[in-house]
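**Archive record**
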Amino acid sequence: MRGDARESTAHERSQARAAALHARRLHPGPVGEVLQRELTAYADFGYRFDTDRLVPRLVAEILATPPPVSLEAC
């Protein structure tokens, strides 16, 4: 490893954590849990290993997806 990765900003880490929580609401079960774990790990230290910027694109997509509508709210 070169060790020259740009450190993510506090705002970027906050967005990744928000996306992690939102992913659990969007995808209940194991898929949501995996997304939550990966996004939380990325917020903590994963930016160092993200060379193709996949996770930031995933964060943007998850945050742009509206939460599911609950039938109880109707």
Notes: Residues 10-64 form one domain.
